[in-house]
Description:
The structure holds two protein chains of two kinds.
Chain A: E1 6-19, H1 20-23, E2 32-44, E3 47-51, H2 57-68, H3 76-81, E4 90-94, H4 100-103, E5 113-117, H5 118-128, H6 143-154, E6 158-161, E7 165-169, E8 172-178, E9 184-191, E10 201-204, H7 213-216, H8 235-248, E11 256-257, H9 264-267, E12 270-272, E13 278-283
Parallel strand pairs in A: 3-4, 4-5, 5-6, 10-11
Antiparallel strand pairs in A: 1-2, 1-13, 2-3, 7-8, 8-9, 9-10, 12-13
Chain B: H1 6-37, H2 45-63, H3 71-89, H4 94-111
Helix pairs in contact in B: 1-2, 1-3, 1-4, 2-3, 3-4
Amino acid sequence: MKNNYSVWVAEFANVxxxxxxxxxxxxxxxxxxxxxxxxxxIKGQGHVAMVDVGYxxxxxxxxxxxxxGARDWHSPHEVxxxxxxxxxxxxxxxxxxxxxxxxxNMEDFPKATFYIxxxxxxxxxxxxxxxxxxxxxMGGIDPADIMRxxxxxxxxRLVSVEGDREDVMPGIDLHAAPDTHTWGSMYVRLRNDLAAxxxxxxxFAGDLVYMQENLRGYTPEDPExxxxxxxxxxxxxxxxxxxxxxxxxxxxxxxxIAIHEDRLKDxxxxxxxxxxxxxxxxxxxxxxxxxxx
Amino acid sequence: xxxxxDKTVEYILTVQTWFExxxxxxxxxxxxxxxxAAGAVAxxxxxxxxxxxxxxxxxxxxxxxxxxxxxRHHDHLLAASGKLGDALSTKGDPLVFLESAYRxxxxxxxxxxxxxxxxFEHGCCA
Lengths: 293, 126
């Protein structure tokens, strides 16, 4: 099987005990799970791309640590070095949605062009026009990120995507997931053989999926889709989108990558550095050196 | 953070609304800049909303009773409101004023408890 891209899931922070009910709809009083914060690094075809960029530790690290137990934050410079690249090497970033923990660290990628769904931006802007009593809708959004987005747009480094877009890089497609986790969520599909009818696909799901239970329920032999705990759109839309994700990888749910899934490290080759950076290697491009071997 | 006296608690409870209002104004103006960068018209209803919320917050801040412990916090909010006023007046690049206002709001949020820059509940950290 031809692989044109290497893909790593890099953990930059974690919450040791996160309520399962936030991750799996309806899982109340069912305990906790370790929640890693990760982004995806894709290298190949002369490019380094990322799916999401994590949160801005300078601004929110202390609050997240104190209030939610988030810890072990590492800078993109430190994390990406474990994949053999630097933040300055990153030319494309695909933002799955506008929550602070996915797009908050844009300033650390000085040469990247950022892709986000137009609907995600326009609906957040609309939400900002609402009266104060609607402020729940603005949860998870950092106005500072919006300001950075303005700056990126002025620099010509922001691409506002309307719906699906194929081949933003060779073999990499963006797919809209409207009214699901957020208004304008997006997932990334990689065709690693670059073929139009690929048999070697990966999907990077953003927060459309938190854990594999969202893809197959609690009994894998009798699978069901259970949405994530939070939807700005609807759980119904999330369930229907999950079907699209699973079909997008020909039913191999191990290829639907949830960046908050702690067990990725058990399913793919992985290592932890002495400083606590975890790198999980999903696939290596032909000729690329393993970063976990 | 050292213990908070009653007068400062009263100040916090009073000023929280105006702090939130200033944040909302900053967010709305940033949203307008996004629309502008996307080629939308500048005369948007959100601008009227921002001006109204801004005026309410400024009036509130000016009338606040500020205990010594909260002086620095209040100064940050006044500075933020000044920068937001500049951003609304369009006498320069609004983004520069907005970023400056946001820095002041962030400094304010750090100088007293009870002032949160963003709600974390929707991101993966609830």
